[in-house]
């Protein structure tokens, strides 16, 4: 039988069975609903049910009898028949009246639901036993406890950033346009997100905007919206923001989303090396097809399989990611390749891309349990993973050094090209000037030739004039000589000579008079 202690300040139930616990909780809820001093819980906004919520991969305790108390008239429905879910915010503490006497009974003697009840209500104790809680997560998290477990295990339940969330919403982010563009592409078929501008899309936009302002180095990276959407299906905006910050920082998700994406490169290198070790035939086929891990596995890591799996499977992936970190995503990737290796070897590159990048694959869901069991059982050598990380980072560092040197050489080459361009411009200018000078020279040469011709003509005319001038005095001399020998009176000669000499100059006597005089002389 179960006993109830309703003493003031203490409400506890010690149940012999889940059925008895459910009946006693019903009775306790009736008492609480009529008690004006009952604990008042802040409830989160309504979220619609997830697709295929009947999957055992989400309802991890489907074989267990579960019951959720009616808190202030708001139902926390359980199992596959839930339509609308309200989750209690961790602004207030989770109610202690669900305590099943966990302080005295070991977890191994309880049902899964009772174990989680005990863990949540005694988190101060179990927060120091993370490995024990991690093993419990591997067994499954009841839907009723999932939002609380995610917050507690990540350390987001008491995050001071919750107080800064609304301040971020009042600021302006440089990524607002990109976020708005991608909001409608995030879970477009889900009832909570498919209506444009409705509550789901608004909440998704708000959380991603707040984070882009909180972490300005990362800002917004495409793909992170699917993780935020998965969180919003479980809790309100403030709690989802707090969990997101913890996932980014403590689980190194932000390293995947940094502009350099070095962490993503590390994981791709590790996956490629593990593939060569565990599945050499498939690795050889991938190499022959030039099928690098970045072609099919990048989205797996960036969205934690939220785009590849159905929502029940994606939710379970988040459970195990919170428990084990990014190594689980690496093991799950290897488990998928192992499970489908015989089929992949028969495919060409295009078929492999289509198969491994399919979204919400029901075929993968059919193999879900095997995939999770394989991934959980797979053990990875941490020393080898660390070695592969250092190996990749060393190569990346060398490449970065080479890139820096290449960038320097490219910069120097650019400067030289600029100088060469300026020199070519100067050369073109000088060539143009040379052409102009040659043209002017040719014109001057023509002018010189013309002037020389003119000078020659002038010389010729001057020579002719000189010769003409030189020939006239000899004629006068001859005439004078003949005149001196002519029989004439000596007295008449002086009068005639001036008239003759006037012929050389500008004589005032007329030609007729000169002629007559010459005739007289003759």
From TrEMBL:
GO terms for molecular function: GTPase activator activity; small GTPase binding. The keyword Coiled coil applies. InterPro entries: Rab-GAP-TBC_dom, Rab-GAP_TBC_sf, Rab_GAP_TBC_domain. Keywords: Coiled coil, GTPase activation. Residues 67-79, 502-516 have a biased composition (Polar residues). Residues 59-82, 502-522 are annotated as: Disordered. Transmembrane segments: none annotated. It holds the Pfam family RabGAP-TBC. PROSITE patterns: TBC_RABGAP (PS50086). Residues 140-325 form the Rab-GAP TBC domain. SUPFAM superfamilies: Ypt/Rab-GAP domain of gyp1p. PANTHER family: RAB GTPASE-ACTIVATING PROTEIN 1-LIKE, RAB-GAP TBC DOMAIN-CONTAINING PROTEIN. This is Rab-GAP TBC domain-containing protein. It comes from Schistocephalus solidus. The lineage of its organism: Eukaryota, Metazoa, Spiralia, Lophotrochozoa, Platyhelminthes.
């Amino acid at each position: 039988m179960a006993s109830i202690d309703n003493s003031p300040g203490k409400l506890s139930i010690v149940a012999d069975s889940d059925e008895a616990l459910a009946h006693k909780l019903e009775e306790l809820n009736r008492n609480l609903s009529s008690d004006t001093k009952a604990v008042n819980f802040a409830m989160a906004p309504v979220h619609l049910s997830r697709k295929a919520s009947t999957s055992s991969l989400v309802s991890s305790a489907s074989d267990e009898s579960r019951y959720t108390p009616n808190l202030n008239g708001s139902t926390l429905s359980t199992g596959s028949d839930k339509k609308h879910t309200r989750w209690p915010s961790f602004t207030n503490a989770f109610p202690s009246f669900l305590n099943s006497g966990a302080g005295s009974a070991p977890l191994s003697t309880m049902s899964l639901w009772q174990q989680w009840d005990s863990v949540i209500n005694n988190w101060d104790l179990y927060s120091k036993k993370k490995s024990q809680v991690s093993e419990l997560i591997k067994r499954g998290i009841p839907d009723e406890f999932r939002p609380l477990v995610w917050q507690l295990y990540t350390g987001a339940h008491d995050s001071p950033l919750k107080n800064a969330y609304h301040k971020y919403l009042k600021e302006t982010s440089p990524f607002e346009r990109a976020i708005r563009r991608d909001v409608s592409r995030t879970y477009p078929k889900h009832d909570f997100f498919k209506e444009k501008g409705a509550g789901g899309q608004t909440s998704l936009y708000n959380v991603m905007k707040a984070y882009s302002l909180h972490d300005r180095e990362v800002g917004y990276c495409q793909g992170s919206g699917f993780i935020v959407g998965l969180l919003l299906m479980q809790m309100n905006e403030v709690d989802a923001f707090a969990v997101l910050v913890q996932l980014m920082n403590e689980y190194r998700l932000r390293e995947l989303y940094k502009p350099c994406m070095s962490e993503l490169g590390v994981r791709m290198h590790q996956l490629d090396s593990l593939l060569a070790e565990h599945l050499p035939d498939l690795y050889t086929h991938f190499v022959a097809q030039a099928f690098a891990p970045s072609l099919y596995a990048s989205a797996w890591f960036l969205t934690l399989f939220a785009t590849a799996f159905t929502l029940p499977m994606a939710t379970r992936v988040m459970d195990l990611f919170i428990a084990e970190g990014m190594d689980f995503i690496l093991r799950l990737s290897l488990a998928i390749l192992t499970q489908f290796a015989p089929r992949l070897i028969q495919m060409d590159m295009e078929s492999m891309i289509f198969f491994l990048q399919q979204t919400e694959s029901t075929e993968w869901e059919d193999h879900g349990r095997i995939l999770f069991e394989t991934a959980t059982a797979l053990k990875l050598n941490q020393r080898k993973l660390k070695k592969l990380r250092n190996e990749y980072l060393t190569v990346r560092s060398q490449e970065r050094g080479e890139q820096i040197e290449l960038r320097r050489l490219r910069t120097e080459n650019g400067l030289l090209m600029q100088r060469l361009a300026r020199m070519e411009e100067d050369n073109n200018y000088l060539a143009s000037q040379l052409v102009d000078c040659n043209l002017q020279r040719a014109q001057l040469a023509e002018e010189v030739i013309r002037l020389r011709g003119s000078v020659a003509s002038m010389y010729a005319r001057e020579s002719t004039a000189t010769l003409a001038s030189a020939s006239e005095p000899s004629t006068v001399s001859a005439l004078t000589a003949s005149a001196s020998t002519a029989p004439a009176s000596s007295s008449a000669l002086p009068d005639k000579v001036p008239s003759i000499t006037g012929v050389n100059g500008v004589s005032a006597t007329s030609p007729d008079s000169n002629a007559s005089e010459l005739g007289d002389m003759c």
